[in-house]
């Protein structure tokens, strides 16, 4: 039987609201500053949430809650990238500013998210170096592919050749206001790769000027 943690170890009790479905309701605690109007779930007010728990069952539940929080936060703010060096100022700190998830534990969390496909580590610029940023897949690449192809079909673009730049253009472009706008080129190409595998697209070239033909 596992030994009990010492008095200094915060515990997430199994009976706590932290571990029940009701924790997914919103609270009146909202962000301020550049990232506003995100309703943080009640469990973010519980200090032990910001320390990874030693009990494996409790930790698994805790990581699942963090996964939901990270993806919901990025979807709400329409963000696709998370940098360890400059994470969103409010995401890993409690609303009361009393506790924060440590950089080491943030990496553990992101490794967990990567194992479930919710994030993807971006290769470091120098081969062999540790990555310090992830793409956040708050929708899967397959779901994004469905959305892109739905737009292609709905706007009569089948048979057309569009540039990757056009498909990502934010300012007054044909795709202005589409949910995938704001993705980095390399991330978006993974979405296009899904369409290629489905036989619904062909990609030409590697740079922003590269083209995509849809079938």
TrEMBL record:
* Coiled coil location: none
Q: Which InterPro entries match?
A: ESCRT-II_cplx_Vps25-sub, ESCRT-II_cplx_Vps25-sub_N, WH-like_DNA-bd_sf, WH_DNA-bd_sf
- GO molecular function annotations of the record: protein homodimerization activity; structural molecule activity
The answer on whether this UniProt entry bears the keyword tRNA-binding reads no
List, alphabetically, the Pfam families matched.
Answer: ESCRT-II
Keywords noted in UniProt: Protein transport, Transport
Listed under GO cellular component are: ESCRT II complex
* GO BP: protein transport to vacuole involved in ubiquitin-dependent protein catabolic process via the multivesicular body sorting pathway
Report the family membership.
Belongs to the VPS25 family.
Q: What is this protein called?
A: ESCRT-II complex subunit
Organism name: Teratosphaeria destructans
């Amino acid at each position: 039987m596992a030994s009990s943690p010492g008095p200094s170890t915060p515990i997430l009790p199994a009976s706590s609201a932290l571990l029940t479905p009701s924790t997914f309701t919103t609270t009146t605690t909202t962000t301020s500053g550049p990232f506003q109007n995100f309703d943080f779930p009640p469990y973010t007010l519980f200090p032990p949430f910001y320390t990874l728990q030693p009990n494996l069952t409790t930790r698994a539940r805790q990581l699942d809650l963090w996964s939901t929080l990270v993806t919901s936060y990025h979807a709400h703010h329409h963000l696709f990238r998370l940098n360890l060096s400059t994470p969103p100022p409010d995401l890993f700190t409690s609303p009361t500013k009393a506790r924060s998830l440590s950089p080491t534990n943030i990496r553990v969390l992101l490794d967990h998210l990567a194992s479930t496909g919710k994030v993807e580590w971006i290769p470091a610029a120098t081969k062999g170096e540790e990555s310090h940023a992830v793409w956040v897949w708050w929708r899967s690449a397959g779901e994004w592919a469905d959305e892109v192809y739905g737009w292609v079909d709905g706007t009569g673009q089948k048979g057309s050749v569009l540039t990757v730049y056009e498909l990502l253009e934010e300012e007054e472009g044909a795709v202005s206001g589409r949910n995938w706008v704001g993705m980095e080129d390399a991330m978006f190409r993974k979405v296009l790769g899904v369409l290629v595998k489905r036989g619904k697209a062909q990609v030409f070239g590697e740079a922003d000027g590269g083209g995509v033909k849809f079938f």
